[in-house]
Amino acid sequence: MRQQYLCRVLAIFLGALMAISCVPKEENYSMQLTDWKIAPTITAKTPVLKAIAVSDADEVVKNAEYSTTDWIKAVAPGTVLGSLVDEGVYDYLFEPDNDGKINVFFNDNLSKIPEDDFDHQWWYSTDFSIPSSEAGKRITLTFKGISYSGEIYVNGTKVINKYINIRDEDFLKNGPTLLDHNASVTDFESEGAGSLIGVTDFEEYKSQFIGTMRTYDIDISDLVETGKAINNIKVKITKPEYRDDLTYYWVDWNPKPADAMMGITGGVFLQTSGSALLANPAVVSKVSIDHKEANLNLYVDASNFTTKDVTGKLTAVIKDSDGKTVATVTKEDVNIPADAYNMEIELRADDHSELSLDNPQLWWPYLSGDQPLYTVDYEFIIDGEISDKLNHRFGIREISSEVNVASYANNYADTISAGHLSNMLQIYVNHRPVLLKGGGYCASDLFLRHNLNTNEAVVEYVKYMGMNMIRDEGKFFDNNLLDLMDENGILLMTGWCCCDRWQSPGSFSKAERFVAFESLYAQLRNAREHPCMFLWFNGSDDPPSIARQGINGQNVEQKYFEIEADLRWLEIGVNSSSGSSKVGTLTGVTGGMHMDASYDSQSPTWYYSEPKGTYGFISEGGGGGSIPVQETMRRILPEANLWPYNSEENYNVWNYHTSRGSFNNLGQHVMFIDGSYGASASFDEFITRAQIFQYNIQRAQYEAINYNRYKNTTGVINWMLNNAWPVMFWNQFDYYMNPNGTTFGARKGNEPVHIMYNVFNKSVNVINNTFLSYSRAEATMSVYDIEGNLINTPLKKTIDIVADGVSEAVDYAISGENKRSPRTIGLIKNASGNYEPFQINYFGNITNAHGVIDLWNNEDIQSSLVKPTSDVYFIRLQLNDAEGNIISLNSYAVPMRNDIAGASHAWNRSGNFQVADLTQLNQLPDVNLEISNTASKKVHNMNVMTYSVSNSTENIAYAVELKAYTDGDHKTLVSPVFYQDNLFTLFPGETRNIDISYNKSDFDGNVYVTVNCYNNIIKGSDSRAATNIYNDVPLGGSNNIARGKVVTGGTNNNNITTINTVALNNAEKGKTFIDSDMYSYATLTSEEASFVVDLESVQSFDRIMLRWNNTNNLRGRPGHIKIEVSEENNVYAEVANYDNSGMGSIMTNIILPVQARGRYVKIIPTGLLGVSPAVGMTERQSAGGVFGQSASGIEQEDASSAFTLSAIEIYTFKK
């Protein structure tokens, strides 16, 4: 990375404002061109744009003196649309938010922006000056991204793309591969796709500026003047064909922006130098196993944009993180030919003993160690004068890998296939295993606007959640983010995107191959500079050489391998053909990852019981719904549409702010929330329950991963980490940088040292996520009933906690072809400059994971009880160090009737047989929580406030939530903000001290902190609802008197009460019982009137639970439910008339005011859901469609034609 120590210079010439970031160097000068002006060509729909549309010919507009006075201010990097939004061009179209402010992301404002404004090309223009001190030097203009193609003019002269990496058309043809070393170079036929259809002339397209992901270096020395002269650059940009060009694509994460993300999307830089220009540094570290020595190989590129060869001397001075010089290396007589571009110069430890460092300061991922950063200062000297300087910051770390087999695979096959989900990539850093945990990164702004504070918040939240990695899928957004990741130990895996043109290499034309290969050179050169970068994907969901891509796909991946070898990638990090379990034909193996972990919300036990859920290395999965806090919801939804979600008027208003394609509603997420906690009567109740559910599933996910480390799990990418706009899906904190239950649950599950309750096998464990050990720690477990009574003899144990680690992988225990052995995953370049296969070990087995300690099993816990548990009870866990300091504090609301996962599994979501019954929580009494600010301090750039929170009552305060506001109106949250703990449980008489930290630069005033809890929001009052109904239920049994009984009415009515064998078996595995199989369902039309359950005898009952879900579909719920009973199936008496219209819930929980009696129970639903209108401009479709879903709006949901009932549960209260 070229370090730029920036000073801000403001230059005003001829009325044009230009903010210039300049770098004074001893000899040379550089600037970043950030401020531009833009205008559409020909015409536009929006009046203000139509008025400034440029109709003059290019020959006129290109000139420096052409007036741009009326053009609109723009910022690069960013998209055209982002600048137009910033300048208020579309404000007149937008609906004001609930506070009367204009926000493009409020309601469906985004879809109101007309695509017609971008039907034609757009002009960019900027003015700048170069100091007179730079006269006579070479001047290089660099674009780090143009979306999608551009024509560039410098002071009226059109420039061509002269400096490229691929200068021989034969490189684009088919030829020798790993499978056929002797294949001849042959041409192939493919018309390609998108903007490059019909583009066939190599001499033409190689000299053009085509491709968003490329870097373009242009020598403009002869086109500009120094001194007081004003220089001008204009770029005429053509937008990409969304999804069909090799560019950005939001897949189903975000709606398609109206401009398809056209613009100058990367930074634009200008720099001066002598004849030789340095760029693209890289450091290869080889660390000894005992960490006492490191050998460094240095690589740097040199270019010569003159017509004469130059010869000079390269010097490299290495300094450690304290600024101490540790090595100085010189290479004499380096010849750089005329017109050379990115010629590699190498300095190897084998040739320079100075590059063998003793006792190096090693760079580690977060929680594994520190992140000391060295620097290397390069100078290229010609005839005694410095031609160029380059500063590179790097970390000494060695990345290595193997692909092992998860132990669970023994249960699946005697011979583990190359594409089995159990194959899992194990990453080692400095020869120590690292369990990788991260989130799928989404460029943090839909319009690709860069923001330093946002980048800092993203990195801080990753650390806050105890994660050590992010995955970027084809956005390559901001080098500043990578710098922060270097500094904080957050690893990066990145590569091409899925589901768009990048995923179809078998049909690339030669022009597309050219763009793809040049893009790989650019992106990998950039990423490899950073110690955080450890893995490159050649494909996301498919290997480029997957069988269906044919011989052409094999040749594309072969060239990827060769380019990666040219760039020394497999000496620096790891590659993977894809993030899926699909086999690439070129290597015959997978990359040791899979994507089969469901993208929608799941119940907590799913992460333990479903092998696909957390086993292997999950390159993307988990996640699902992630509903923000109510303050964010009110920033994006009209007040009138806040509640209920599942109503005609509101359904699609909410869904507009979900994802797209198969994830364009909250069906499965809400099914779990309603089904577990009961119907919500208000928006605040629902949001509170959503936060708790999200907390519990995120905590369970990471606890399961940590528990299964190395033997069954080596890494996971939660889908996703963040969003580019405000969304209720796939994030771990919201767009406005507010944390929520998802954030807090991930943090709790990933504590550095963590005491946990396994919600599936009912055991207690300690997990150590660090390389530190703890001797004589003390663990304690206590159990409380719903009334706050201690009901067990607390369990205590003193333990020694060993550091994180593993045994060595051994040969896989099961016989078969795929035994532990080396397999080829790519190419490296040897000392002679030739390619040779690079291999890693496959199909080993880790037999022992360190840092996982078993404390108590279910039998131990049950034996400690002195009173029976309530239907919902609480487990409190505490882990202290030898000095009595708390290391980990954790608690669980445990349902007697737990969830049972495993009803189905598909790529998008998995079904459940049963959800947990946590409804007894609704009867927790109000508690008076006391809060006070006890301390404050400043730590670096953070304000840290300590608050004491006390529960002096005799009751449990569940899901205690602190919120920090910027004002006394409690409307605007401090963000980003980091709570030491949140959504925790306060037991009777307990006090907790909680630190709240936030950046002084974000908010430096007084914060206003509130405290609340579940009890005080839900306000349960029906004492009958707190009655226990699950006492003395055997595993696999039930107290549901409707289970297995005959139902009449509707279609497939036996689905309502029947339990299948798999459900019974899964219940037993999860040490629980099953009351209903809610995965299958029956239907009932309005004409069919009712369902009737025959209990087979006259019985008394007090409670009826009905579940109106159809897999992830909520539309079959009624507005009203009437319950009638009869002893002889003739005369019926009404016992309940339930109004669901204000709740929209799929879960009906009826507590009868008095006990009812009868044999026949009639359920009469009425009030089918009507049409939910379309939201947004639904006629817009991205190229090829997005899984049949509109790219911008949410399409109309038709009226429901039938009620769907999946389960009937009827209970008698126990005395």
Molecular structure report:
With 1215 residues, this protein is an alpha+beta fold. It has five domains: 7-167 and 209-271, Galactose-binding domain-like (Jelly Rolls); 446-751, TIM Barrel; 774-806 and 850-922, Immunoglobulins (Immunoglobulin-like), CATH 2.60.40.10; 925-1019, Sandwich (Immunoglobulin-like); 1029-1211, Jelly Rolls (Sandwich), CATH 2.60.120. Helix content is 14%, strand content 33%. Strands 4, 5, 6, 8, 9, 10 and 12 form a seven-stranded antiparallel sheet that branches. α6 links the parallel β26 (469-473) and β27.
Average pLDDT taken over every residue: 94
Strand element count: 60
- The count of helical stretches stands at 19
User: How far do the termini sit from each other?
Assistant: 72 Å
What proportion of the residues is helical, as a percent range? 10-25%
CATH class of the largest domain: Alpha Beta
Q: Which spans of ≥5 residues are poorly predicted at pLDDT below 50?
A: 1-25, 1183-1189
Briefly note the CATH topology name of the largest domain.
TIM Barrel
Number of domains: 5
Based on CA atoms alone, the radius of gyration comes out at 32 Å
Main beta sheet strand tally, sense and closure = 7 strands, antiparallel
Structural class, judged by helices and strands?
alpha+beta
Just name the CATH architecture of the largest domain.
Answer: Alpha-Beta Barrel
Q: What portion of the residues fall into strands of 2 or more residues? A: 25-35%
Fourth-tier CATH superfamily name of the largest domain = Glycosidases
Shape: globular
